[in-house]
Write a structure and sequence with these properties.
CATH superfamily of the largest domain: D-amino Acid Aminotransferase, subunit A, domain 2
Number of strands: 15
Distance between the termini: 51 Å
Structural class: alpha+beta
Bound molecules: 4'-deoxy-4'-aminopyridoxal-5'-phosphate
Shape: elongated
Helix content: 25-40%
Mean pLDDT: 97
Largest sheet: 6 strands, antiparallel
CATH class of the largest domain: Alpha Beta
Strand content: 15-25%
Strand order of the largest sheet: 2-1-6-5-3-4
Length: about 290
């Protein structure tokens, strides 16, 4: 029997069911999900999962895609079409499909996907009778910001916070008050002593390719570098603040949380590094 998936209003063969390549679930992990177990074709703990779903969606400010009654109908219809007596039903809701941009899209309906599958309850019973093995590993959720993963939900929320405050970028701050990096950029300052500062990459940040290029260019320009973290206060007192990324090159940041950086104008170091970076990038592009 072929499986069926519900995708954005239609029931489709599971084998060919697709969401758009610009779905934010795929691009940013910008979505939530729920799983119900199914006994005799019926949903277990329906309300409990619906309550958590509503909370997850509300926390992420993803619009509730349909009423609880409509969703119940879709879940049950998916279970029915898959002839699941005992098994599981999955629901994924993402912030929908929109041209790639970290910040939330406007007027984009959420994507809704429902799948269901049969589970052999006897297997679980046999294992439960014997008992199951466990292992341990450090809880790293999500302590691997050095990996350029599509799991970008925290970055999405940071960029959205910037947008809502009329800002270009959000600098993210660790529990010690030190800037880690921007939501989609590496962060730099020219500190009060005139030293170029950026956090070292032993730390939990993305090793920006632009960052590496800028480090070399700064050296060639004879700019003194101090590769260590800086606090928000240090950034606010800095001569210059700027961010770097393949998409924005070197972008001077002239205010932070509403406070002017120095005289509120792009500084000479950022301006020079932008110029030499662009010149080199153009020249060396293959
Ligand atoms: N940090 C984060 C979190 C990013 O997403 C990016 C760019 N996508 C960067 C830093 C900058 O990296 P790169 O210079 O390689 O673009």
């Amino acid at each position: 029997m072929s499986r069926i998936a519900y995708v954005n209003g239609t029931y489709q063969p599971h084998s060919g069911a697709t969401v758009h390549i610009e779905d934010r679930g795929f691009q940013f992990a910008d979505g939530v999900y729920e799983v119900w177990s199914v006994f005799d074709g019926k949903l277990a703990d329906f309300e409990g999962h619906m309550t958590r779903l509503a909370r997850s969606l509300t926390e992420l400010r993803i619009p509730i895609p349909m009423t609880a009654q409509a969703l119940e109908r879709v879940l049950k219809e998916t279970i029915r079409r898959n002839r699941v007596r005992n098994g599981i039903v999955y629901l994924q809701v993402t912030r929908g499909t929109s041209p790639r941009d970290h910040a939330f899209p406007q007027d984009t309906p959420p994507s809704v996907i429902v799948t269901s599958k049969t589970i052999d309850l006897a297997k679980g019973e046999a294992l439960a009778a014997k008992g199951a093995a466990g292992v341990t590993m450090p809880d790293i959720r999500w302590g691997r910001c050095d990996i350029k993963t599509v799991g970008l939900l925290p970055n999405v929320l940071a960029k959205q916070a910037a947008r809502e405050k009329g800002a270009y970028e959000c600098l993210m701050v660790d529990e010690m008050g030190l800037v880690t990096e921007g939501s989609s950029t590496n962060a730099w300052i020219v500190d009060e002593d005139g030293k170029l500062r950026t956090r070292d990459t032993q730390a939990n940040i993305l090793r920006g390719i632009t960052r590496t290029a800028i480090l070399k260019l700064a050296e060639a320009e004879g700019i003194e570098l101090d590769e260590r973290p800086f606090s928000v206060d240090e950034a606010k007192r800095a001569r210059e603040v700027f961010v770097t990324a393949a998409s924005s090159f070197v972008m001077p940041i002239v205010s932070l949380d509403g406070a002017k950086i120095a005289d509120g104008k792009p500084g000479p170091v950022a301006t020079r590094l932008r110029e030499v970076y662009l010149e080199q990038a153009r020249r060396e592009a293959i």
